[in-house]
Every structure is written in C-alpha cells, then in structure tokens.
Design a protein that fits this description.
- The strands form two sheets. The chain has a seven-stranded mixed sheet with strand order 6-2-1-7-8-10-9. A three-stranded antiparallel sheet has the order 3-5-4.
- The chain is 43% helix and 19% strand.
- With 276 residues, it is α/β, with parallel strands linked by helices.
- Strand 4 (176-179) and strand 5 form a beta hairpin.
- It is built from ten helices and ten strands.
- Bound molecules: S-adenosylmethionine.
- S-adenosylmethionine is lined by residues 72-76, 80, 108-110, 114, 137-139, 142, 199-201, 215-217, 220, 246.
Length: 276
C-alpha cells in the first residue's frame, strides 16, 4: 500500500470516528480542502499520523473542539460582495415588504458580519422592526464573536467601503462605536437577530423563511451534502421567496434547480417557484 493510500484510509477512519462519537458528518465535505486541513492539524499538533489524531479526538472532546475550529473557514466581511446587498436592497426588499412579518436565515454566518450588514440594510429600508433574523453556524467560537458584535478596528475602512458600494443611505459610523482598536456594533441592530448553533449536516429546517442567505458555505460540501442542504432550504422557504448563494455557488445541476427561478444570475439570487 502506498503512503498516500494509507493516509486516505486513515482520514476515512477519522471521519467515521467523528461521526460515530460526535454525530458530525464530515464524510460529505469536499475532499481536497478537508484533507489539507486535517494534515495541517496533524503537523501542528506534532503527531506522526492521522491515526494518532483519531485516537486523541475519540478520547478528548476538547481536541474535537479544536478540530471543529480548524475545519471551519470563517472568512467574512461586512457587506461582502456589496453588489449582492445592493440588489437585495433595490429589487428584493420591495417583495419582502409585502409581508407583515419577515423571517431571514443566514446559514453559515461565521462571525456575524453578514447578519449585521443585513440588519443595517433592513433598518435603512424601514423593515428591521418586522424582521426576525436567524444567524446560524456550527462553530461556537465564531458564534461567540458574532453575539458580541465587536470587531477589529482595522476592518472598518474596508467595511465602510463595502457599505457605501451597497447603496448606503447613511454613514457606516452611525452603526458602531469605536473604542481603542475595536468597533462595537450598535445594540439596536442585535434586537432582531438571534444567533444560534445549527449544523447544516444534520439539523432540521427553519420554517416559513422569506429570505435565506447561505453564501460561501456550499463550496466546502460534496454534491450529496449540497443537495441535502439545498433541499432543507427549499423546505424552509415560503413560495415566491428568496435564496442567495455565494459568488462561486449555483443551483445549476442541483436537485432543487427546477423549484427555483433565477432572479439574478450574477448575484446568485434565486426565487422559489409557486407550486399551484
Ligand atoms: C467562509 S464562511 C462564510 C461566512 C458568510 N456566509 C460569508 O459569506 O461571508 C463559512 C462558514 O460556514 C460554516 N459552516 C461550514 N460547515 C457548516 C455546517 N455543516 N453547518 C453550519 N455552518 C457550517 C463555517 O463554520 C463558516 O463559519
């Protein structure tokens, strides 16, 4: 057996062990980046092989906590891809405002910037008061940062630029207070956001959603898991409501493709078809 084949076997065993012990199913994550991150954890921990990591994870839930942190790529920004927020502001909000109550789900919210951006946008469009934003992730470490809403001050310049490009109606400085080297998001934005742990691999759908954003998450999944998660979104959405994916993600060739119209192909905005 080659070294490479042995490593692959050990990685498969690790993923089985994690599923058996903790119920997290990484067997459907895209292999290349998953394997790279596992091998990097093995090296950083000074271990000689993946099997040693498996033993440590099986017997120590704290090691598993670190593993989870490693596995989740939490890169995000305020108003990331500003043109998407501009499109939501200019073309989607007019549909949302026809509902007396609006439910929004950010699946894979990382450290929360996307949810705060949405709260700012909705506030400026006069909709925040009737919105409930659910912002979920399976990484508790990221969720803790999201709940605090405190970010490094050096992000502010980039975030302000994004905000302005998103069709801003005020000044970004109105939404945070700067202190030393950090910026704290305004408490009023948090009122309508619920941050919660939710694992797309196994947890239930949220019901009656008007808008779901799951951006830059599906790229880490293989096509089986992608289809499973898209099916959950399809079940969660009310008819004629909206799904927004990341720049490199698409509904094309997925099992739910026939249940959605393309609302804006460039911005990856889809609209659930009305089933009569
Ligand atoms: C690159 S971030 C994207 C953040 C944000 N949506 C954005 O586009 O800026 C990907 C997030 O997906 C989360 N994620 C990955 N697998 C997940 C799963 N099975 N369930 C829930 N969240 C998951 C990661 O923890 C990470 O925070």
């Amino acid at each position: 057996m080659t070294q490479e084949a042995l490593q692959k076997f050990e990685i498969n065993q690790l993923l089985e062990a994690i599923y058996f012990r903790y119920g997290y199913d990484f067997r459907n994550y895209a292999a290349a980046s998953l394997h790279r991150r596992i091998l990097s954890r093995v090296a950083l921990s000074g271990l000689s092989c993946v099997a040693e990591l498996t033993a440590n994870i099986l017997h120590d839930s704290e090691v598993f906590g670190l593993f989870l942190k490693d596995m989740s790529i939490t890169v995000t920004e305020m108003f990331r891809d500003p043109s998407v927020f501009k499109e939501i502001r200019e073309q989607v909000c007019c549909h949302l405002e026809t509902y007396p109550r609006i439910n929004i789900w950010h699946a894979g919210c990382a450290t929360g910037e996307e949810a705060y951006s949405m709260a700012i946008l909705l506030q400026e469009e006069g909709l925040l008061e009737r919105c409930q934003i659910y912002a979920t992730d399976y990484n508790n470490h990221s969720l803790a940062i999201a709940k605090k809403g405190i970010y490094p001050a050096q992000q502010i310049k980039r975030d302000t630029k994004n905000y302005l490009a998103s069709g801003a109606k005020a000044s970004f400085a109105d939404y945070y207070s700067a202190k030393y080297d950090s910026a704290k998001m305004d408490e009023s934005l948090k009122k309508n956001i619920t941050f919660a742990n939710h694992n797309l691999m196994k947890d239930q759908a949220f019901a009656q959603m008007h808008l779901i954003l799951c951006r830059n998450v599906l790229i880490y999944f293989d096509s089986d898991l992608k289809n499973k998660v898209l099916d959950v979104f399809n079940q969660s959405l009310i008819h004629r409501c909206f799904l927004v994916l990341g720049d490199k993600e698409t509904l094309d060739f997925s099992q739910v493709q026939g249940s959605f119209d393309v609302f804006n192909r460039k911005q990856k905005i889809y609209r659930k078809i009305n089933v009569i």
